[in-house]
Amino acid sequence: MMKQKLDYLENLYGEVERLYEQGLSIEEIDKSIFRKKYPITFISEGEWDSLHMVSSIVSDLKHGARHP
User: Any idea of the CA torsion for 7, 13, 17, 23, to the nearest 10 degrees?
Assistant: First the structure.
């Protein structure tokens, strides 16, 4: 299961990177990848929002990090 999670996160990183390089904004990338907002997003008052993952990956990309 850990391998599956790692694969998912690596694929997510790659997809965010691809869309970011195409010039999409963080919000556009989030909406493209995560088309549905789940109740946990609202219950947590945004703490569990997918936008945080996308923002973190874009920040990583801006600082020169690259997906392995």
Answer: 120
